[in-house]
Amino acid sequence: MHMLTDAFSAAKKISEGKAGSLSIGYGTLTLHNELFRASIKKFKDAYPDVSLTLAELPSQEQPKALAEGRIQVGFMHFGTKASGPRHKALLPTQDETVLDWHVIGTGKLGVVMERGHALAREKALGLEDLADERFIVVPNSLASPGYGMLYSLCQNAGFEPQVVQEVATISSMLNLVSVDMGVGLCVIGKHFAYPPQVRVVPLLRVDYSTRFAIGWLKGRHDPLVDALLDVVKAIAISR
User: Under CATH, which number does the domain 107-209 receive?
Assistant: First the structure.
């Protein structure tokens, strides 16, 4: 009898989103957003019977991971996509996966440099001020301009960027910038925090915006995803 009662209790918790397992995708840029860190901590505290798995995946790979069931929900950053002489903001359309979204926040573009850099104390910079700088790029990143967008932005500012290093993640770029190997472009916004060894300076006159969103498969009801979404919304409103 006790075993049957326990089974019903466990099933009830799962149906209410209070127990079970939840796999969450995130990119390295997401780790620098306090909304993500606060949301995960609050969810763990509020739902101790839920087993969390965090899977590090670039934003552009998460729709496929959702479709294949490798993750149930993803925290993703998306930037501006080049479209001829104009640009347009995007959410992922890399495959035929249909997703539902909740946008948590937005961001703009800044330049990150080692704290002792000659330009690090400036309140803001134009891209033209970086004409003599060495750039470290994340070619496949949608939130930090890779080769195509970087060249487009710099050409609009009147110069060709000198790319000296390409890396796989935002974290790798920040590490190289911190030892003065070059500068990089990255997202700035209300909830972003970067290592103390670097300084991020806002860029002026740059048409580039980003969105930070949480996404899941459209039409798939998952009580645990709903519970996480409630936590994320509450955190975003309170900050």
Answer: 3.40.190.10
Total-model pTM: 0.83
203-235: burial string, b at 16+ Cβ within 10 Å, e else: beebebbbbbbbbbbeeeebbbbebbbebbeeb
Largest separation between any pair of C-alpha atoms in the chain: 77
- In degrees and rounded to multiples of 5, residue 137 shows phi and psi of -125, 155
Write the single-letter amino acid at 150.
Answer: L
Domain ranges of the chain: 21-106+211-238, 107-209
Query: What letter represents residue 57's amino acid?
Result: L
pLDDT in tens, 40-68: 999 999 999 999 999 999 988 999 999 99
Give the integer Cα–Cα distance in Å for 213 and 220. 18
Fold of 21-106+211-238: D-Maltodextrin-Binding Protein; domain 2 (3.40.190)
Q: Which of 200, 207, 187, 202 is nearest to 81 (CA)?
A: 207
State how far the Cα of 28 lies from the Cα of 215, in Å rounded to an integer.
Answer: 16
